[in-house]
Structure prediction request, 309 residues.
Amino acid sequence: MIAAKSSEWRNATHRAQWLSTLTNDAAALRGRYVDDIETTDILEVLKPLWTKKPETAARLRGRIEAVLDAAKAQGLRSGENPARWKGNLAHLLPRRQKIAKSHFPAMPYRDVPALVEKLRTVDSAPALATELCILTAARRGEVLGASWSEIDMEARVWTIPATRMKAGKEHRIPLSSRAIEILERMADRRVNDFVFASDRSRGAIAISSMLSLLRRMGVEGATPHGFRSAFRDWCGSETHFPREIAEEALAHSVGNAVERAYRRTDALEKRRLLMESWERYCAGACGKVVKLRNCADKRKVSFQNRYKL
Prediction:
């Protein structure tokens, strides 16, 4: 299963998330034979998450369906896929459109400078990664998956390839002075090609490390992804930067297809002014907000072994 899906995963982090979802959220199916799994078993796994974490539940359902489809293709089970949505679970679970859309808990932007001040007292890779996540308004996975080959220290630009972006499009991030300082500190500790490398493996530090750090620091009700929301709220409430510049900084598509076709640049230098202003705000510059203008035989195989094949 792993070999077959590898071409669809954007990076090692995506692969780890895929496996983690099945291992942790579908724990009730572990050790079960794939040909014995029925709809009631799928419901047992999905129902606890379906209304509380609809996005997670939807991904989990799709991944279980993929595992069982693969098992059927290899003759390990027969009959309809019990994780199938149309004509099956659609009649047993509420549609996601009817579930209130959930958002990542976000820290109010006015509280961000105090957090940054606390982060700078912690000399660790997770702390530096969290601060870089805040300063660049990047996603947690983009930060933790960053490699040195993506960083141009001289040009002060971080180029994230399309394969690592949610929208599948290359994204350039202008690096502020503090962001460069963070990268220089990590360069002194370099052990592999990952910027935030793990001392225990050849990969990057754990995807959960940033959230774990926030919890240890007593920060509740906020997530690394939520800092993007704090940044966007700050842009809209406290600056005069155009909306499209703020959205471009978040790697969001702006305008319709025609507008995007005629927009040939990514406004890098205008975004550089925005990110430098955000850095000054996060550092508590002047104690106030900085405002800028114009800027074969059937075999018995367990579910767990099936998705690890």
User: Anything to note?
Assistant: Residues 285-296 have pLDDT under 50 and may be disordered.
